[in-house]
Amino acid sequence: MPEYQEPMRSEIYVTSWLSGFDADPAEITAIVGIEPSDIRRRVERPQVKENEGSVHSGLGPEADLPTQVASLLGRLEPAWQSLFELGPRYDAGIVCVVRSHGGDRPAIWFDSDIVKRAAELNACIDVDLYALP
After folding, report:
1. Could you tell me if residue 90 is inside a domain?
2. What is the pLDDT along the chain (133 residues), one digit of tens a residue?
3. How far apart are the C-alpha atoms of 28 and 103, rounded to whole Å?
4. CB–CB of 75/67 below 8 Å?
5. Which of 30, 28, 21, 29 is nearest to 48 (CA)?
6. If DSSP codes are grouped into helix, strand and coil, which group holds residue 27?
7. Which among 37, 52, 83, 88 is least surrounded, fewest beta carbons within 10 Å?
8. Is residue 1 part of a domain?
């Protein structure tokens, strides 16, 4: 008989994004040297106001928020200098989506290193919390 497993109580997704540039996202990719997880081009989607590229944390939704953000920053590390230089010229951010099920409320916090590193990239931090039944 299979072992009983508790259903996942929270799902957490963390993504960084860079937007507000007129160049094709492929040009930004060439400068940064990191392949984006997702690209949105104005010319392909009329509802998109600006070109945008994003990189996901690379972890599954069961990882906690600090672990997700640390993983994302680690994935950006090889391009840190380029992102540091691009950050003030464009819009940058880290978006954290937390889907909480059945009253579960995971901790939402960022240590000083995460805040410092986000500031180095001139990135905002956005947390979207969805409390689901």
Report:
1. yes
2. 556 445 557 899 999 998 887 777 888 889 899 998 988 777 676 666 778 889 999 999 999 999 999 999 999 999 999 999 888 888 999 999 999 987 777 888 899 999 999 999 999 999 999 988 8
3. 41
4. no
5. 21
6. helix
7. 88
8. no
